[in-house]
Amino acid sequence: MRVVIAEDNVLLSTGLELLLGRYDCQVAAVVDNAADFLTAVRDHQPDVTIVDVRLPPSFRDEGIRAALRARREHPGLPILVLSQYVEQQYAAELLATTGGGIGYLLKDRVSRVEEFVDALHRVAAGGTAMDAEVIAQLVQRAGDPIATLTAREREVLALMAQGHDNTTIGHRLHITDNAVHKHIGNIFAKLGLAITDSGHRRVLAVLTHLNAAGTSP
Amino acid sequence: MSRGRWSQVRRSGIYLLGSLVSGIVTVLALPLLCAPRFALLWADRHRDRAGRLLGTPPASRTDPTTRRALLWLPVNAVTGMALGLLALLCVGNVVVATIATPLWWAFTFEERPRLFIDIAVTGWTTALTLGPLQIVLLAALTFLGFPPIARAHARICLVVLSHSTAGELAERVAVLTRTRADVLDAHGAELRRIERDLHDGTQARLVSIAMRLAVARQVLSDDPRDEQFLGELLRDAHEGTEEAMTELRDVIRSVYPPILADRGLDGALTAVTTRCGVPTRLDIGDLGRVPAAVEAVVYFAVAESLTNAARHSGATTAGARVSRTADRLSVVVTDNGIGGADQRRGTGLAGIRRRVLALDGTITIDSPPGGPTTITMELPCGL
């Protein structure tokens, strides 16, 4: 798997290179700014990209904007955005781009190497990897059908929204595939969503619902 | 032209008679008016009234200081009563001369109407000569004298209430000295909190991680086959780094919210209202350049107010409006919840208040039981 990394902090970019090298990922290019990132994506046509939110020159949200632009120029380009903090607003903007895998994770998650590499593969395959903290921000809200979910259903919802498939959810919660399936049926019924089996579309449906619950007047 | 003059005379007359009433009220209500709050309200009324008479635009009227408002009390009592009484005498005596003189014969000898203060009307000669004379003289005085007298009083009023003097500057300096001390206190408390968070949290965790790694190295060189112990040490160290990162993120967020640095006040407030539990309408005008400290306070204040609305008020909608007028930023947060928000009970409102006052701003919390709640803040943001 060929990766392009946009990260201006040398400590972190060398760390990522080291880590990805051990998991059969080839780092095609490491760049430290948005313009070079767009060039590198054109030149190397990577399988997946990793982008830091804050990049020079202003160290604001250049990474997000570069990611959105790269996605427009190369429809379907898988993007995993890394950040020192997560903001629901950014998650919503990233999810609004259609087609192709999207990930948004705290940099902390990199230290759980296998989960991180798993998330990277998921994104590369067109799936979703949303940070648990984004989901926590979304699910916290009161006055919503989410309040009617049981504790277990909420756990399933959180893992599903992060982009995991039924098998992984069952494995994480130590329950059978069948039980996962039943919980998901209940969740979709309570939230009034149509059940879709495709992983990515399912995630989008859930996240769109969660986002909309916060913004609609 | 003459019609304009007459309306001027009428307005001046009403103004002067009003001054008489307000002079009397000032004397009667003096103990109450000595309270700075009432003195300021009273002064505001007079300043606006005088401004209207002189036709000065409201924008050019400055807010009176407490000292000036208190000074206005005796000045108003004396000038208002004296000039007002003069006006009353003029008008009253014209009325007396007009109505009472032709009917002089209807009064008993002791109660005969008097013209020119002390000349009793005892026959048609005095009635028909002095009567019209008094009317003409007083009418002339009214016609020519009222407008300048009323204007003089209005000018005295504005001079007392508006002019910037050493005393006023001294008062302002005293206020700024106090708020500056509050700023330094708040700043100091904030630095101590950050220091404590980093010292007790992140630093302590790093030490414990370093110790575990050091022991792990020792084990590797002494007894590399004790894999279980090594595993435990590495797992603890690893979890320690994750907890340290989470704590560090919380500290950073409390110092200066990253979204504010990324997106500015506009974007940061959009993010706050989006993730708030209550549907919230955000209304932001053109704010121009706003100092970072003010942005941070506005962000915290809006976030905290909306969190309160979502957690405690049972509101179904909320609103946040931020607008700029010249050198002030005004922030209004409303919700349609049950009200009863009390800054003495919750630490949230007290925290907002402390931050706003520390920047020389003002805050009013209007939250009657039953609602709705309106929190209004004004912050100076320079030019």
TrEMBL record, chain A:
GO terms for molecular function: DNA binding. Keywords: DNA-binding, Phosphoprotein, Transcription, Transcription regulation. Residues 142-212 form the HTH luxR-type domain. InterPro entries: CheY-like_superfamily, NreC/VraR/RcsB-like_REC, Sig_transdc_resp-reg_C-effctor, Sig_transdc_resp-reg_receiver, Tscrpt_reg_LuxR_C, WalR-like. It comes from the Bacteria. One of its GO terms (biological process) is regulation of DNA-templated transcription. Coiled coil: none annotated. PROSITE patterns: HTH_LUXR_2 (PS50043), RESPONSE_REGULATORY (PS50110). The keyword Transcription regulation applies. Signal peptide: none annotated. Residues 2-122 form the Response regulatory domain. The modification 4-aspartylphosphate is found at residue 52. PANTHER family: TRANSCRIPTIONAL REGULATORY PROTEIN NARL-RELATED (PTHR43214:SF24), TWO-COMPONENT RESPONSE REGULATOR (PTHR43214). This is DNA-binding response regulator.
